[in-house]
Specification:
By secondary structure, the chain is mainly α. It is built from 10 helices and no strands. The longest helix has 19 residues.
């Protein structure tokens, strides 16, 4: 265990340095830590307490954990990313996705809205907010969000699909 903690600290310092330079290698390194199991909550978190990580790195680790289905752990990493950089729209968006997957729609809606305040051109946040509104039968608001997502990114197939569902729900499609 001490060797793993030492490896985690050295890897975390290295990744933190790369992330500050906005290096693509940092993203791969974060993925490597997750794949090797070192980033699954306690070992890396405990070993790196006090080391100033870039918010982007926390967001990347959270995304990797979410992909592997470790939602409670990813939630903590996204919250840390937001604490470190409250202006990071992608961290707010990712937090919303985890909250939605944890069946916490009100909190997910707030996270998506925060992401959109920071980055109004975030098509996936518009689409995801639309889904939250759609499930609450708030079709008018959902349509607005889906249309915005499609306008921002015409290649967003999910937004087109969701727009079609919302139009059908309102009887605007035969």
């Amino acid at each position: 265990i001490p060797v793993l903690i030492l490896f985690a600290v050295l890897g975390a310092v290295w990744l933190g340095q790369l992330a500050r330079r906005r290096s693509v290698r940092a993203w791969w390194g974060a993925g490597f830590l997750v794949v090797t199991g070192l980033a699954i909550n306690a070992p890396v978190k405990a070993a790196t307490d006090g080391i100033r990580f870039d918010a982007e790195l926390h967001n990347a680790i959270g995304a990797a954990l979410e992909t592997r289905g470790h939602r409670p752990q990813s939630l903590a990493w996204f919250e840390d990313a937001i604490r470190r950089d409250p202006r990071m729209a992608d961290a707010h968006f990712n937090l919303g996705t985890v909250l939605w997957n944890l069946d916490r729609p009100a909190e997910a809606e707030m996270a998506y809205r925060n992401a959109l305040k920071l980055r109004p051109d975030h098509d996936k946040a518009h689409d995801s907010l639309g889904v939250v509104l759609y499930t609450q039968s708030l079709y008018s608001g959902a349509l607005t969000e889906f249309r915005m997502a499609v306008d921002l990114n015409p290649r967003n197939a999910d937004a087109h699909y969701h727009l079609g569902l919302a139009l059908y729900a309102q009887g605007e499609v035969e």
